[in-house]
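Why do we care about 3D structure at all? Because function follows from shape, and shape follows, mostly, from sequence. That is the central idea of this module. The next example makes it concrete: a single protein chain, its amino acid sequence, and then its structure expressed as tokens.
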Amino acid sequence: MLCSQDSVDSCESGQDATQSQHWYAQRTLVRSCASAASTSAACCCPSEAASNTSTSPLPTRRLSIVRMPCGVCGFNHDTHALAKPSTTLTSHREITTTSIPTNPTVPAAPPAGEPDFADLSYSRQYDVLFSKPLQVKKPVAKPNKDAQSEEPGSSKVLLSDVHAVAKKPLWMRPWASTDVTYAVFMVVMHGLALLAPFTFSWSNFWLFATTYFVTGCLGITLSFHRQLSHKSFTTPKWLEYTLAYCGVLACQGDPTEWVSCHRYHHLHTDTPLDPHSPYEGFWWSHMGWLLDNKVIGCFLVCVC
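And the structure:
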């Protein structure tokens, strides 16, 4: 605890030995009391050890908050200083302190009459969030699963405990040119995959396994996901670019789009701001979200 030594010396000078002992004991008691009452008044200076005190009557001294320079770091700190001792004699147990600061970081309670956001269902959270300008960089609480299961029209997603209610139209909506391009590409690729049994050969099989490892394992999992999105490791730039190029060959978008989408997903996982939330249904979380450019565009503004 920081105290002005000059003021202590001036008080001790001119007093007899008994008064000096009483003053030193009282000063130590007040320091210990202030240190236990509030940690915000602590300084980087080392605290002094407590001394043995007597239970005999001692003069009452009060504390006040002042700004004083620290003898160690040189900066000013809010600290407790001893005021002028009073002439009234009392027990050391009656020492009082004033202006003890409170903790300013206690979160405010929600307004009266409004439920906690974490107690709302996914559908209710969706309605609240999208009824006003979005704050896409601020995470929100996850929805209450029990409340979601009681929503009208909710259906349980297969092999999960999630009850989904579609909040975004899948088909009957305006389609951007990007949405049409993605849809055509997916239909063509899956259609060609249906021809695999009729064109099977071991050479084609090993070609598939090799390209899957290069594009999926090295490109998407190792590069896009672990290195670029989560920054789990670093490599020389030439190797980083080579791995990222393998990810581009997987036809899942460029690195900037993929990484921004994935970081946005981690910021808002399973909330109404999640671009592929399972609360929208299995189809939406698996593939439907890719066909809505309006959703994809929102996480390009939140490249974390």
